[in-house]
Task: structure prediction
Amino acid sequence: MKIKSQRDFWSGLMFLLVGIAFAWGSTEYSFGSSARPGPGYFPFGLGVLLALLGALVLFKALTIESAGGDPIGSIAWKPLLLIVGAILMFGLALPKLGLVLTLPLLIFVSALAGDEFHWKDALLNSVILTIGSWVVFIWGLKLVIPVWPTFLVN
Amino acid sequence: MDLLSNLALGFHTALTVQNLLYCLGGALLGTLIGVLPGLGPVATIAMLLPSIYALDATPALIMLAGIYYGAQYGGSTTAILINVPGESSSVVTAIDGYQMARQGRAGAALAAAGLGSFFAGCVGTVIIAAFAPPLTELAFKFGPAEYFSLMVLGLIGAVVLASGSLIKAISMILLGLLLGQINTDVISGTPRFSFDIPELTDGIGFVVIAMGVFGFGEIIANLGQPAEHREVFTKDVKGLWPTKEDFKEAWPSVLRGTALGSILGVLPGGGALLASFASYTLEKKAVRNPRVPFGKGAIQGVAGPESANNAGAQTSFIPMLTLGIPPNAVMALMVGAMTIKGIQPGPQVMTSNPELFWGLIASMWVGNLMLIVLNLPLIGIWIKLLTVPYRFLFPAIVTFCCIGTYSLNNNAFDVYMTAAFAVVGYVFYKLSCEPAPLLLGFILGPMMEENLRRALLLSRGDWGTFFTRPLSAGLLVAALLLVVIVMLPSIKSKREEAFQEE
Result:
């Protein structure tokens, strides 16, 4: 069988699998009855409904012709990995390194994800954004965020 | 006159120095993000949510509302000047507005858009003030069954606006509803789908989803595309004021657009976007022999849709304020903001927090006035901002989103969750699944479940309760009608046509 629409095929599959997963997961909780619905009642119904719709999207993707096969296109691995990596690193580093070291790191790594990367631009951006963030979030909004690295404070 | 004394209370609240400043700040920020493509009000309000912990409820909501209608103004500025609609609702404005700008009539186009929006905003504010109280009365008659049916109608209404396939949009709603099920069951206290992770038993924060999917997901998608070439052909806008002829042609369009927008804004899921598309179609029908043909720089094509989208933006506050049911993603975030401040959104807000309710309404009018005063002289500065290269802009967005998510609970777990939803957001983008219905479903999920289960308890398990209670049945019929209308072949092709103009 030939896939007529790539995007719909994969989204249909996604809906189908997520729907089944939720419906299956909700069997762990008491279903109750319609008169006394338990915690599993609503998610089970939703999961089944989503799986059905997913199957419908999948079916359409395999039968109905679409323009040029509706390809997904190439995946932008570089920005995807760098941005997600930068966010994860921010979460890991902030409690230990504080705002003053974490932000420049975050800005450098995420700037690498762009088409053009210039050391000077990234440096300028880090300085402006780190000071700006301090002014807005720490000084202005008084958020409780570690500012200095732990090894400097102790 | 109740209306007058209520409005007096509202203006009394809105005109304090503090609230005026927050209104101004919100309107300015909204205009700024409206001008910047790729940074919408949803992502901005999501970013700002953590910061409103420090504010009182009234100034916080006034600021968020300012961002929302400010964004509608700002979006049209770039649509007219450089053919890049900053907001989805100003897509239509770009058609004729950009043509006017190319003929050197940018000033006239901008003024028509600004003045039209101001007029529409004033009318919208009066409509909210006049219709909110009777609607609230009605809302008190709502039982769980009616609320459930109303939410079904609201979600279906949201689907009409998604640009892609109808089934996929409904699936996205269901996906959102399911994500909303990751929490502790309210009635039995059972933690659900938490995989024994303590942070998950409180549910996923909707800020996490909004920032991950809308903020980061869009950045990744933008960076994945080849750098776009923006052509700014005018550095300064000359000849700000429209001619007498322009005025004569524009004002009927403004009236029509305002009327249409006010009505469509109230419908759940309707809102500003649909209003601007509908108004453009109406203008094409209503103006028989335009001096300048549509698509070639007709001022009616700017004035009508701009008034419509601003009126719609204004009146879409009605379902949020009276029923606590958000008609679009921005309103969903406003509901979230109210909950953060400990206010249960719904019909009781008007009586329990009258200052908040009427102050917010009055501040909308004040905000609109500020916007018109601000925008016309500021246009030059907004254009300069557009020359900030994206390579400076996106690390800034990443930074603010990261700090915002961390400060939600002051721990890194939310940051990791946001990273996961960034990947999910990119997957949605690649599979052309619109994420807005998902966010709405996510917000409404727990409310829907509670009302469904309470309705079933009351009816002793009889699903017929949703069809035998007249109000509930009416709402469900309306939802069904919406689906049928969208499925009808002629409208379906029109809807696709309208979205293809993007």
In short: Residues 2-500 of chain B form one domain. The radius of gyration of chain B is 22 Å. Chain B has 22 helices and no strands.
